[in-house]
Amino acid sequence: MARLTLVTALALTGSSSALQIPLQLPFDTPWTSHRHVVTADEAGKLPLVDSETLQSKISSHALESRSKVLYDIARKAEEEYGHPTRVIGSADAHVFGGPGHDGTISYITSVLAELGSYYDVSSQVFPAVTGHVSESRLVIGDEVPRSASPMGLTPPTRDNEPVYGDLILVGNEGCEPSDFPSEAEGNIVLIKRGTCPFGTKSENSGKAGALAAVVYNTDPEVVHGTLGTPSPHHVATFGIGGEEGEKYAKKLREGESLDAIAYMDAEVRIITTTNILAQTSGGDPDNCVMLGAHSDSVAEGPGINDDGSGSLSILEVAVQLASFRVNNCVRFAWWSAEEEGLLGSDYYVSVLSEEENRKIRLFMDYDMMASPNYAYQIYNATNEENPTGSAELKELYVDWYESQGLNYTFIPFDGRSDYDAFIRNGIPGGGIATGAEGVKTKDEEELFGGKAGDWYDPCYHQLCDDLSNVDLEAWEVNTKLIAHSVATYAVSFEGFPKRTDELVKRNAYTGRTKYHGPKLVV
Ligand SMILES: *[C@@H]1O[C@H](CO)[C@@H](O)[C@H](O)[C@H]1NC(C)=O
Ligand SMILES: *[C@@H]1O[C@H](CO)[C@@H](O)[C@H](O)[C@H]1NC(C)=O
Ligand SMILES: [Zn+2]
């Protein structure tokens, strides 16, 4: 599940095309089991999948063993990061990815490889810009603005050292070079939010010779944003809240002078990372049911629930599905860089041709399946606000929980996970989750047990998202539901709406880009 704001932010680099590289196999891994390899020919002779049988093959025991493997993989990053993590990127610029994330990708692909030719497996490598702020400080006059925070993908101040100057107010919103007075040169500029992306304001500041930039909000609260695609003209950029920002702007307008110190120890770097795709070799390739989970974690911890749980749920379903024939193609995805702003799924959808886009009948998102203080949450998708078919998928989840005598709640379908690029591009979507940093209500305690007043996942985005941070019962329940969703659409799309001609469907949340790395927040 992506976090609301990004201090460590990433963005896709400008122009790049999909690079499909062949899988590097076999992996010499300790978790290889000996399984009969299914040939495509044999796949045709297998029994047709049915939901009950597929569900019966899902056990919490198998999920738990996979989670232990994943935790050991996260520990490979200990030397470099000081603790287990499966975050993308690496402190070493020459390394393909973080050891924990690389290990995750290897594990997924090695498990799929054991299934022989049942799946066509491919890796989609894409570039991403990664930014990291080690330390930052802003002083204005004799104050440290309470609401100051570094923008995502900000470059450092010169030589990663503090810079000093007068605080200079920029005209209008700093979207035109002419908004910058000549005093901007060699000083620190204060710019109002609005009209153009933060990246443009930072770039104009650099071109005007400013040492650093401070963008103040138009609302009282802190402004978190990202500079987006790096520019050689970007300067170290902070955001501050509107209340503090307006106070400084007013003083400057009234002719008072303020000095400032800016310090940003930061780094921006381009790396490559990888989505894994696996599509059944059988089934109608023009009518695919697609599902995904994200393979990366945040830097702070091993991400066993977020989203080790979803990644392993769909892996286990992929393994079990391989004993059956399908009528429609089933396509699994393990997205990279979800935590950095939904980058992998954004990239995947952005390079789909119109023809390929239309082959995807729906996309199902499985992010955080086993929160310890869980609620059974269903994304509240509708056909009015989302591509037609999203409501039918939601009904499938509702019907299943009801058939099991389980309670459920609806949660906003607001673009916080990898389904977002799909619904923005006309593909019906939905999914289930068990909750992140939200607080369980008293009502939900009645519905699901657990503890009201606590987060659904008290270890969300923390070091303690480890082996003890999954509820095995919820995990098994939801993985059975995933199996049900896969089996249902693998057999038939009868009654499920055909794709409409609209590739870009109106979407209640179209204007919101708060979870995306590459999107420039204005
Ligand atoms: C779900 O969406 C419908 C339609 O937009 C809305 O009326 C309803 O309040 C939503 N429910 C929740 C729990 O968000
Ligand atoms: C569902 O919620 C009701 C309260 O509305 C509760 O009495 C019941 O035990 C819950 N069912 C399950 C399976 O937890
Ligand atoms: Zn997350």
Automatic annotation (TrEMBL):
Needed co-factor(s): Zn(2+)
The EC number(s) this enzyme carries: 3.4.-.-
Catalytic EC class: hydrolase
Entry annotated with the keyword Metal-binding: yes
GO molecular function annotations of the record: aminopeptidase activity; metal ion binding; metalloexopeptidase activity
Domain Peptidase M28 residue range list: 275-484
InterPro entries named among the record's database cross-references: M28_fam, M28_SGAP-like, PA_dom_sf, PA_domain, Peptidase_M28
Record protein name field: Peptide hydrolase
Organism: Hapsidospora chrysogenum (strain ATCC 11550 / CBS 779.69 / DSM 880 / IAM 14645 / JCM 23072 / IMI 49137)
